[in-house]
Amino acid sequence: MKIKLLKKYNKLLALLLSLLGFTTACFIIGGAEYGTPHADFIVRGKVVSEKDSRPIKNIRVIMRDSTSIYYRDSINTDMNGIFTLKITGFPMSKNFNIDLKDIDGTANGEFLNLDTIVKFTNPVFTGGNKHWYNGQTEKEFDLKMKPKL
User: Fold this and answer.
1) Overall domain count for the chain
2) Max Cα distance, the chain (Å)
3) Distance from the Cα of residue 114 to its chain's centroid
4) What whole-number distance in Å separates Cα of residue 144 and Cα of residue 127?
5) pLDDT tens digits, residue range 51-105?
6) Is residue 108 part of a domain?
7) Backbone angles phi, psi at 17, to 5 degrees
8) 135 burial class (0-12, 13-18, 19+ CB within 10 angstroms)?
């Protein structure tokens, strides 16, 4: 008697669960979205000599998210000492470490390495798509490197 009763309960439970699965799968509000909110953090700047304010080319500029070793970008400065770096991350206040290294030896003169921090505190994002992409925010600044003696 107990076995028959348990079999009936199992069938009833299986029917209810399958109906529950169909009803939740067919009810769509605004379409399905998958992912994590993200935004682009862009840092632009110019690297110049502290001694005579001339632009320095071929300086390696490395941008790292201060909370992760995985999120980073790097570039060499162009002929005018200009660089642009971008890291995509979760849209919130963030700090990024910026490391500058003279990699070309004596070609442009020798300069000491420089480390600094860029803070995006309460950033304002523009150009988002109203879904997971919140847009981009930018900081721009000049960096002065000291020549080696």
Assistant:
1) 1
2) 97
3) 22
4) 31
5) 999 999 999 999 998 887 777 889 999 999 999 999 998 899 999 999 999 988 8
6) yes
7) -65, -40
8) middle
Q: Which amino acid belongs to residue 12?
A: L
- Residue at 3 is within a domain: no
* Cβ(74)–Cβ(43) below 8 Å: no
Phi/psi for 119 (5° steps) reads: -110, 125
Residue 44, domain CATH: 2.60.130.10
At position 149, the amino acid (one-letter code) is: L
How far apart are the C-alpha atoms of 92 and 123, rounded to whole Å? Answer: 7
Query: In this structure, is residue 87 part of a structural domain?
Result: yes
The answer to whether position 2 is within a domain reads no
Residue 107 β-bridge partners = 109
Provide CB contacts within 8 A for 113, sequence distance 6+: 99, 100, 101, 102
Which domain covers residue 50, as residue numbers?
38-145
Residue type, 103: I
